[in-house]
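Good morning C.,

I know you're traveling, so I'll keep this short. The sequence:
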Amino acid sequence: MIQASEKDLSANSELIAFRIGGQEFCVDIMSVRDIRGWTQTTPLPHSPDYVKGVINLRGSVLPVIDLAARLGFTPTEPTARHVIIVTQVANQSVGLLVEAVSDILTINAATIQPTPDVASELARVFMKGVLAIEGRMISLISLDCVLPQTQETAGTVH
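The tokens, ready to paste straight into the viewer:
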């Protein structure tokens, strides 16, 4: 029987690794549409603290999330060295502000270890698992949980 983590990532998956606050994280490369340098954002009123604002991406409005703030770390003060990873999940495009892209990893599902039980419930929500590769610990992020709820889904009763 195929486990849930094996359904999420095929036998040979590629991940993009990046740095936030001295730690490494990664997302499935199939969710990444573009990687661009930091661009000043236009703030949105009444948006969550982790939403930096929006940018114009080839004629489309792209919300930019400070991934460090979203994951509970110190909010990022972006510089020219920071990058925005443009991701697509379902019908939503969102930019993730990170310090730098560090690597492209090719892994198989067996490489992914479960999120440790000592992690908080919130950490388990954001993380699909942990990779121990070449002496590095890299957390695999679940983009579904990182993206903010849209107004439509926020008011929906399930």
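Safe travels,
E.
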